[in-house]
Structure formats: structure tokens, C-alpha cells
Specification:
The protein is an alpha/beta fold. The chain contains three helices and eight strands; from the N terminus they run αββαββββββα. The chain has one domain (2-184): 2-Layer Sandwich (Double Stranded RNA Binding Domain). It has helices at residues 5-18, 58-73, 169-184, and strands at 23-28, 39-42, 78-79, 87-101, 105-113, 122-130, 133-147, 153-162. The protein has a six-stranded mixed β-sheet, with helices on one face. Strands 5-6 form a two-stranded antiparallel sheet. The longest helix has 16 residues, at 58-73. It is elongated and about 75 Å long.
Length: 193
């Protein structure tokens, strides 16, 4: 059993951390010079209503905005309330049912014993692999940067992750902060030379 302990631990870590990953992507206007952007303002006070009570939540709205303001200010951008900012920010958050499969699942079984009255000690080890399909909720957060001068979209960051309803507001805040941080890690875009 001792020699299989590292294998069991690795499989458990894969299962625990494999399900909670955030996938991010971005799109942007390659002609835009992002180095001139310093100030921003929110385009509207709240997200447009979606008719999904999980999303149309003033607490969630405040948490997403606070996470964004905190994360973008660390990058040196300043929120302004009067005057014209360099860009406006908006976001959309949706939750949808998704079908996914686990790429790898592993099972290990051990057995010792025998059958019959004269049988000696016998044992066996079984190892199996496969995949399983399940339905889960996936949250998608889309953050848009809009040019304040002409109203054109200049950058879009997207983050998706599995979500579950939390009864702990601190856990929800931690998840939102992590998602926003990973989306904004892509901004400003790194240009290929």
C-alpha cells in the first residue's frame, strides 16, 4: 500500500485542482496603442438584467466591480468620476449548463483472500481508467474596454470556470477576485514582434 500512496495522492490532487481551473482568452484591436490609456470609468452603474436570479444580484455586481477596480489599479490605471476617461469598462456575467467530461479517471483496487477450505492466501490488484460525462454550471465573465472617443470595442477579456452556489460570501469574493485577476493578467496585450 505504501508504494501506491504517491499515485493516489497525485490522482486526488488532479481531481481537486482539475475541476476548479479558470480558462481565459482575449481579443483586441491590434491597431490600438494601449500605452496611452491611463484612466477609465464604468460605462453603466449595473449590468443589464438577464432574468437569471443567480446573475441579477446587486451583491454580485458590487463584488465584480470591486474586484475589477482593485485589480486594474494595481496595474496603474485610475478610475475617474468626472471628465472624460481614456476608456469605459463594461462586463457581462452569465451562467449556463455545460456538459463536460473528465479526461482521465483512475481507479485502483486491492484484494486479499481465497475461496474454499484449502485455498492459500491469494491477492490481486486492479487498475482501471476511463472518462465520465457530467453536466455542470459554467460561469462566463466578459470584460470589455470601450474607446471613450469613438465608442469602439478595443479589448475583450473572457474568463470561464465551473461555478456552484456558495453559502459563504468570503468564498464567493475569493472566486470572483481570482477570476478577474486572471482575465486582467492579459491586459495590456503583449504584442508579437
Amino acid at each position: 500500500m505504501r508504494k501506491y500512496k504517491p499515485i493516489i495522492i497525485i490522482v486526488l490532487l488532479f481531481v481537486v485542482f482539475g475541476c476548479s481551473s479558470i480558462k481565459v482568452s482575449q481579443d483586441y484591436d491590434p491597431a490600438k496603442d494601449f500605452s496611452g490609456l491611463k484612466t477609465y470609468a464604468w460605462q453603466s452603474e449595473t449590468q443589464a438584467k438577464t432574468d437569471d436570479v443567480r446573475v441579477d444580484n446587486p451583491l454580485l455586481n458590487a463584488r465584480i466591480r470591486a474586484a475589477f477596480d482593485r485589480s486594474i489599479s494595481r496595474k496603474g490605471y485610475q478610475k475617474v468620476s468626472d471628465g472624460t476617461p481614456d476608456f469605459h469598462v463594461s462586463y457581462q456575467y452569465t451562467i449556463r449548463k455545460t456538459i463536460g467530461s473528465d479526461d482521465v479517471s483512475t481507479g485502483i483496487g486491492f484484494g486479499i483472500g481465497g475461496f474454499g477450505h484449502r485455498s492459500g492466501a491469494a491477492g490481486g490488484i486492479g487498475i482501471g481508467t476511463g472518462s465520465s460525462v457530467s453536466e455542470y454550471d459554467e460561469g462566463m465573465l466578459v470584460i470589455d474596454f470601450i474607446d471613450a472617443g469613438n465608442g469602439n470595442l478595443i479589448w475583450r477579456g473572457i474568463g470561464t470556470r465551473r461555478v456552484s452556489m456558495q453559502s459563504d460570501p468570503e468564498k464567493t469574493i475569493t472566486d470572483i477576485n481570482k477570476t478577474v485577476d486572471e482575465i486582467l493578467a492579459q491586459f495590456p496585450p503583449k504584442r508579437k514582434r
